[in-house]
Amino acid sequence: MEPTPGLQLTPRAAAELCRLAAVGGKPGQAYLELLAGSCETWALRLRAGSGGAEPLARADGITLHCRHDQQRLLQGLQLDFQADLNGGGFLIRGSGRIRSCACGAAFTPLLASGPSGG
User: In the 8-state DSSP scheme, what is residue 3?
Assistant: First the structure.
């Protein structure tokens, strides 16, 4: 099955996912899981491996997997990585489709004016 279109990986995110996967002993494979957030509805958790889930996105040597029932929440969004003196972190962006917390790793989907159809 081909990945669901819609989640975009920036080059920085793909590079950091590749590093995370290699360090975790699963080169080329990363798993994104959405957990209940404290500051927003959903928080990201990323780790090495496929997690037994379906491919969601591919870029620059990494395949990102996610549970099928969570993939629709990530459509139209972008995963980025920002490095800083503390190591940095993954950020989710959605240009008006989500509300992010200050850390950028948690989000709440904003409701469209009509039915989502999905």
Answer: P
**What DSSP line would sit under 70-88, residue for residue?**
HHHHHTT-EEEEE--TT--
Domain ranges in the chain are 8-109
Predicted TM-score (pTM) of the model is 0.85
pLDDT, tens digit (0-9, with 9 covering 90-100), for 78-109: 999 998 888 889 999 987 889 998 888 899 99
Single-letter code of the amino acid located at 14? A
In the block, residue with structure tokens 């989710």: 92
What CATH class is the domain 8-109?
mainly beta
Q: Which residues contact 81 (CB under 8 A, 6 or more apart)?
A: 10, 12, 13, 15, 16, 17, 88, 89, 90, 91
Angle at 95 (CA atoms; ends 2, 101), nearest 5 degrees: 100
